[in-house]
Amino acid sequence: MKRIAAVARLEIAEKAIAFPAALAIGILPVVLAAGLHGLGPAAEVRDIAAVFLAFLVGTLLAVALGFTSTAGDIASGRIAFYLVRPLSALELWTGKLAGRLAVVFGAALLAALPAAIADGGGMRLPVVPIGQGTRAFPFDAERTPAGLAAAVALIFLLAYLVSQAAGIALLGRSGWFLADLAALAAAAGALWVAGRALLLGGAGGARAAGAAAVVALVFGALAAGSTRSTAHGGRDPGLGHRVRSGTLWVVAAAGVAAISILAAWILHPSPDDLASVAWIAPAPRGDWIATMGRARWRGGYSPVFLENLATGAYLRLGGAGIGTPLRSRPPVISADGRAAAWTTAGLALDSLPSLTPRTIRLDARQPDRVAWETKGLREEPLLVLSGDASRLAIVQSDRITVWDAEGGRMLAVARPTRPLWENARGFTAASFPGRDVLRLYAVRAAALSARESVIDILELDVAHRRLSRTGTAGPFSRTFPIVADASRERLIVRDGPASIALVDGRNGSLIRRIDGGGALSRAADFLSDGRIALFESAEGRGTLALLSREGERRKEFPVGPAERAFILGERRPGAVEIVAGSRADLGVRNGNVLVVDLETGTIEKWCDHLLPAAPYPRLLSGDPGAAPAPGSLATRLFFDRDGALVELVAPYRMRRVLPVR
Q1: Are the CB atoms for 481 and 462 separated by under 8 Å?
Q2: What share of the chain is helix, strand, coil (3-state, %, to 5)?
C-alpha cells in the first residue's frame, strides 16, 4: 500500500500544474455572469457555465492523462526503470491510476469552486430540457449527491481507461490495431443482440443488471489489459499493445459469452417457470390456452405462451415488453381451437415500433409461424380468425384487411368512413358470421350525450370487397361486455350494472331490455342452443333465470346468497356453470362454483375459494361470438386463493396446471 501511495504522490506532483489552470478556468463563469446580464439571472448563468466547464475539464484531463500514462512510459523506458525497483506491475499501474485520477477529480472540483463560492456554497445543478422532459446536467435531477459523485467518477474512470488503451494501440503501431477494431465490433454486436432482445421482451430488471455487468466487464477488461501491458511491455510499445490486446479480448470474450448465455436463459423460460399469471385466454374448443405471467428469477421478464394442457406442449411467443401488443391484446385462438394469431413488435428508431401479425396452426406436427406483413402498421390491431381458421382479419382504426389464412392471399381491404375507435367508449369488436362476411361493432360516443355510447354495426362483404353500415344500437350508458350468439344475429349488451339489452346483431334494433325489479346486479350470456342464461341479485340473494331466444323468462333457480356472479358457460349441454359470491369474496378469490341443470333444476356446488381464470373469454379474443363450447377450458380453469392456476375436473377435485409459487 505504501508503494502505491508513493507512486500516486509522484504522479500528483508531476501533474500539479493542472490545479491552478483549472482554478483559472473556473473563474470564467463568474466573470461571464457578471458581464452578460441579458442571458438570464446571474446565478443561473454562472451555475450552467461552471458545471459544463468542470465536467469538460475533468473529461479532457482524464483522456489526456490516460493516453500518455502507460504508452508514454513504455516508449520512454520509464516502465522498465520502475519495475527494476521492488515494485510490482499491479502496484505501479494502480498507483499511477490513483494519482492521475486524483489530479482529474481535483481539477474538476477546482473548476467549479469559484462559482460555488459565489453562490455561498449552495451551488445548484442546472436543469436543462432533454427530449420531452428535463434533466439536471448531466444526470437525473432526482439523484442524490452521492449518486451524482459515483456517476461522475465512472465517466472519468471510463475516459481514462479507454484513452489509456487507445494510447497503447496507437503508439504500438502493430497490426493488432485492426484486430482490436474487429473484436470491438463483434463484442458490440453480440451485446446489441442480447440487449435488443431484453428490451423487446420487457425484462427491465435484467436489462439494468446487464448494463451494470457490461460496465463492470469494460472496466475489468481494460484494467487487466493495461496491467499486463505494464508488466510485459518493457521498452517495446508494440509488445505492450499485443499483450494488452490479448488479455483484454480474452476477458471481454468470456464476459460477452456469459452475458449472452444469461440473456438467452432469461428469454427462454417454460410455463413451469412462471411466478405469477397476469391473464389466461382459453381456446373456445380444445386444450390450448394463451397465458402471460412473470417468470421467476428473470428480472421482471413476462413471457407469453400458447400451451396445450393435455399434452404439456407449449409455444413461446415472446415477451410482453415495451411497445409490444402482447401485454394489452393477448393471442386469439380460433373457435375450433386449431389456429392462433398474435402481434409482435420490432425495434424502431422512433417511439412507435413496427408491428407484424402472425399466425400458427396448432394442430400441425411441426407448426410454422406465418408473418402477415402489413405496411405502416404502428397501432395495435384487432385480430379475428374465422370459425374454421381459414380467414384472418387485421382490423386497424382506419383500415380493415382480410387474408386467406390457408392460401396466403389478401382477399379484401376496406377503409371505414370514420376511425373505428375514435372517441371509443367501451370495446370495439369484430366477428365472422360467415366465411366471407366480417361484422364489426364500433363503439362510439353518442351524438347527444358524451356520457353515453352507441354501437355502429358495419359489415364487410369479403367476396365483393364492400364495406357497409347496417345499423346502430344504443345509446347505452356502458357497453361492457358485448356478447353475440353463435349465429352473430343477436347481441347482449350490459347497459349498466343491472340493465341488460338484447339487440339485433345486424341492424342494432332493440329486441328486449331487462332492468328494474329491484335487482342491483345482472349478467347474461347465450347458451349453445341459443337460449339465454341470466343472473340477477336482489337484496343479496342470487337467481339464475333461463330466457328464451327472444328474452322471455322460462325458468328461475335461486342460488343463495350472492351479490355478483360470473357466467362461465356450460359445464355440459344444459348445465350452466357460474361463480357467485359477495363482491368482497370475489375480490379475494373466494367465489362459490355452482353448476345449475336447467332442465331438472338441480344445483350442485362444485367448489369454493376459487375465481374464474377467464371471466370474460370473449373480451380477450376480441370476437364477441367466440363462445366457449360446453365443457371447454373456460368452464374448468380457476385461480385458487394462492394464485395458482388449477383445473376443476369434478366436484372438489382439482389439479394444478401452473404451479405458481
Answers
A1: no
A2: 35, 30, 30
503 lies in which domain range? Answer: 486-661
Cell digits for 226?
493495461
Shared domain for 46 and 66, answered yes or no, is: yes
Task: Measure CA 507 to chain center.
Answer: 39
pTM of the model: 0.76
pLDDT digits (tens, 9 = 90+) for 334-371: 988 999 998 887 655 445 567 888 899 988 777 777 88
Q: Which residues of 60-72 are buried (b: 16+ CB within 10 A; e: fewer)?
A: ebbbbbbbbbbbb
In the chain, what is the straight-line distance between the N-terminal and C-terminal CA atoms, in Å?
50
> How many structural domains comprise the chain?
3
Q: Do residues 604 and 618 lie in contact, with contact meaning Cβ atoms separated by under 8 Å?
A: no
The answer to whether residues 30 and 142 belong to one domain is yes
CB 18 within 8 A of CB 103: yes
**C-beta of residue 546 within 8 angstroms of C-beta of residue 531:** yes
- Residue 309: φ, ψ to 5°: -75, -15
Query: CA-to-CA distance for 415 and 436, rounded, in angstroms?
Result: 17
Is residue 157 situated within a structural domain? yes
Task: Tell me the pLDDT tens digit for each residue of 197-251.
Answer: 777 676 766 666 767 777 777 777 777 766 766 666 555 556 666 666 777 777 7
